[in-house]
UniProtKB/TrEMBL annotation:
Species per Swiss-Prot/TrEMBL record: Saccharomycopsis crataegensis
Molecular function GO labels: 6-phosphofructo-2-kinase activity; ATP binding; fructose-2,6-bisphosphate 2-phosphatase activity
Bias-annotated ranges (Polar residues): 420-439
A single GO cellular-component term on record: cytosol
Pfam families in UniProt: 6PF2K, His_Phos_1
Stated name of the protein: fructose-2,6-bisphosphate 2-phosphatase
Gene3D superfamilies on file: P-loop containing nucleotide triphosphate hydrolases (3.40.50.300), Phosphoglycerate mutase-like (3.40.50.1240)
Length: 446
């Protein structure tokens, strides 16, 4: 299993965004940081707008001209903070989210990076499609804190004025004049992408990611398989069949999904290679695809045991897993971190696709959910992903909207709370063991 963190130990990268206002720079910066953080690569975005707001308040509290002429001040602070972060927090990828439109400003940043042994990667978002620009202006208009209390028409005018002002000394990247620079130029997001002088593994990972994601509206549906015989018995792993209630969920799923998705919408169903996900998908009238990478976390020597048996036979392992569930690797099996690594191609393909329903397992769904919802690693293995519930994810420009739809078919809870003994030794009366607890999610039912 490749370990990205070890492979990239000695390379530090500064992604320097370039582009006029309303070119999707913040969206790109946030996506790159979220993707790298999910892969345990320490990444952080330094947004010039955030720095400017701290010093000068919202954009309307500063004249356009001042904002333009004074910008070097907050750019300097952002770059200095980024360097400190690289050094003190062992950062790997810093992202400078701002227009960086003039060559002289870019040269200065490049020089600082080289002095600190940080490789600069320029990333330009260049648009020439008027409809794309209009959409982005509307997006900035409704999402930026600068415009939250301003009339939308006034906000639109401010953004357009800023675009015109920044155009004055904007220079776009070019393979002849910037041949010695490492850069990616995205034209109209993905219409075409120019790549120049990419020479490290990590740079190529970032570029590959940039080439794959799209920004069209779509929905990702997630569900665990129906309740399995192993779930009923409190056993983990294995390749058990569905229980009677699990089968009921499989039978209800087509009606539920068709109602949610709409009759004319296209959908592809992704399942694992384990029987319980296939059986759950069997009545769905959509194209299906099996992924080995979607198989449940491998519990190694504990496969087929209950949590209680694990605690009795391997008390140290039981404790170690509770202490660091993300990194704990079952003997002969996997950790959550290992699952994330093997899920990377799934995420990459998900970024390229439109509507997808994924029917998979508790641990795998936690990892996928964590990617979209930016959940920190120490929390993700403890998230509640109940059985017989569909999760709807709608990725938007700046965040993801999530809702849960319960099938109203009872199922056991397979959730084990942190710090709870399965041997009846818990002192915490609110904590639950894992068996025969009917799932009750705070969601609407179908
Ligand atoms: O990491 P924890 O919380 O143990 O959850 C993972 C476990 O969930 C289970 C159920 O207990 O998954 P599944 O969705 O496949 O039924 C186990 O097979 C698996 O080991």
């Amino acid at each position: 299993m490749p370990n990205y963190t070890n492979n990239i130990q000695d390379s530090k990268i500064c992604v320097i965004l370039i582009g006029l206002p309303a070119r999707g720079k913040t969206l790109i910066a946030q996506k790159v940081v979220r993707y790298l953080s999910w892969l345990s690569i320490k990444a952080k975005s330094f947004s010039y707008d955030d720095y400017r707001r701290v010093v000068y308040g919202k954009s309307n509290e500063l004249t356009l001209k001042d904002r333009y002429e004074e910008c070097y001040r907050w750019v300097e602070t952002a770059v200095a903070d980024m360097i400190e972060w690289f050094e003190e927090e062992k950062g790997i990828v810093g992202v400078l989210d701002g227009s960086n439109h003039s060559e002289s400003q870019r040269d200065k940043i490049e020089e600082i990076c080289r002095k600190h042994d940080i490789k600069p990667l320029f990333l330009e978002s260049w648009f020439d499609k008027p409809e794309l620009i209009t959409n982005n202006i509307l997006d900035v208009n409704s999402n930026s804190p600068d415009y939250s209390a301003i009339d939308p028409e006034e906000a639109r005018k401010d953004i357009e004025d800023r675009i015109e002002l920044y155009k004055k000394d904007y220079t776009t990247l070019d393979t002849s004049t910037d041949a010695d620079k490492t850069f990616v130029k995205m034209i109209n997001i993905h219409q075409s992408i120019i790549i120049n002088k990419i020479d490290t593994y990590l740079q190529s990972r970032i570029v590959y990611y940039l080439m794959n994601f799209h920004i069209k509206p779509r929905t990702i549906w997630l569900s665990r398989h129906g309740e399995s015989m192993y779930n009923l018995e409190g056993k983990i792993g294995g390749d058990a069949d569905l229980s009677q209630r699990g089968l009921k969920y499989a039978q209800k799923l087509p009606e539920m999904i068709q109602k949610l998705v709409g009759p004319d919408e296209q959908l592809t169903v992704w399942i694992s290679t384990l029987k319980r996900t296939y059986q759950t998908s069997q009545y769905l009238p959509y194209k299906k695809l099996q992924w080995k990478a979607l198989d449940e976390l491998d519990a190694g020597i504990c496969d087929g045991m209950t949590y209680e048996e694990i605690e009795r036979q391997y008390p140290e392992d039981f404790k170690a897993r509770d202490e660091n569930k993300y990194l704990y690797r079952y003997r002969g099996g996997e950790s959550y971190k290992d699952v994330v690594t093997r899920l990377e191609p799934v995420i990459m393909e998900l970024e390229r696709q439109e509507n997808i329903l994924i029917i998979t397992h508790q641990a795998v769904l936690r990892c996928i959910y964590a990617y979209f919802m930016n959940v920190p690693q120490e929390e993700s293995p403890w998230m509640s992903i109940p059985l017989h519930t569909v999760i709807k994810l709608e990725p938007m420009a700046y965040d993801t909207i999530v809702s849960r739809i319960k099938a109203d078919i009872p199922a056991v809870s397979t959730y084990k709370e942190k710090g709870t003994s399965q041997l009846g030794e818990s002192t915490d009366s609110s904590s639950s063991k894992t068996r025969n607890i009917i799932t009750s999610a705070k969601v609407h039912s179908l």
